[in-house]
């Protein structure tokens, strides 16, 4: 048993010293809820200065920075991402794109076209076509574009990838993944998450992208080939889902549940489901089935990119069928901060993007494929043009 667990050990990385002699100049595009995590993270970085913020709603960015304790900081405010990026006196090194989903692509592309590095919140965007244009802008710019998948920095997610790479599971041929919330349609800050014009996609993109990334990253992100998808909005369209705001039901224009059967290169089948609301505590654990072993990853009550308990490997040792429990690992630090730090380090060292767009392009193509298949009522082929 000990020898098996030893195969998955990793030597702890030494903490790197941060050179704060030159501060990176950061702008924030969109000052809604997720921007709080970005600003909090940047505030903990000694080599960062937040110098600008943009929001379409007059006064919102100023009120946001005041709330974040930066009201007295030397920050300039702009009514749009273009106005901020066009002000060359800012000398921006990077921006965080924290807008609603439908503005992810235009804001990111414009920043890249103007030679600015981008940390883009998840989901990457709404459609495959948008994702392709983002990747093309990144390639042409030569700048760093990293996508906001902080669960990658969780030690348990790293362990999952090491288990697969160790070969103990053999060839993986079937994956079941997903998650959700019994009740969890995100409307405490208004309706931008649930309206078609702003959100574009619902649970499918909001938390489904995390679930997909967990398993796709573990197996090396094979190219998606076909998708048969389904989506529904039974809870989102129900006024009883919004105590105090029944009118939100009329604005709901995305999915609150989605499921799909996805074929990947290499003969891998991906069985997927995700929910903002359902009459279950979970749609099931994540399962990886391989020719030499299987892996079960316990679900969580409210899916947020983590695991719900010790992973279990089902395999054979000396002809006996056995189970190896992988203890839950502690992550030394805040994964959101690690996401930001890795992005900043890539800028300063001229390194590569920590969460590369080439991978998340496949993630986005699957999400878009599910939505399109659901609307057409049939299987669709995923076609991704050359970047």
TrEMBL record:
<protein>
    <submittedName>
        <fullName>Gfo/Idh/MocA family oxidoreductase</fullName>
    </submittedName>
</protein>
<dbReference type="Pfam" id="PF01408">
    <property type="entry name" value="GFO_IDH_MocA"/>
</dbReference>
<dbReference type="InterPro" id="IPR036291">
    <property type="entry name" value="NAD(P)-bd_dom_sf"/>
</dbReference>
<feature type="domain" description="Gfo/Idh/MocA-like oxidoreductase N-terminal">
    <location>
        <begin position="24"/>
        <end position="149"/>
    </location>
</feature>
<keyword id="KW-0560">Oxidoreductase</keyword>
<feature type="domain" description="GFO/IDH/MocA-like oxidoreductase">
    <location>
        <begin position="159"/>
        <end position="296"/>
    </location>
</feature>
<dbReference type="InterPro" id="IPR055170">
    <property type="entry name" value="GFO_IDH_MocA-like_dom"/>
</dbReference>
<dbReference type="GO" id="GO:0000166">
    <property type="term" value="F:nucleotide binding"/>
</dbReference>
<dbReference type="InterPro" id="IPR000683">
    <property type="entry name" value="Gfo/Idh/MocA-like_OxRdtase_N"/>
</dbReference>
<dbReference type="Pfam" id="PF22725">
    <property type="entry name" value="GFO_IDH_MocA_C3"/>
</dbReference>
<dbReference type="InterPro" id="IPR050463">
    <property type="entry name" value="Gfo/Idh/MocA_oxidrdct_glycsds"/>
</dbReference>
<dbReference type="GO" id="GO:0016491">
    <property type="term" value="F:oxidoreductase activity"/>
</dbReference>
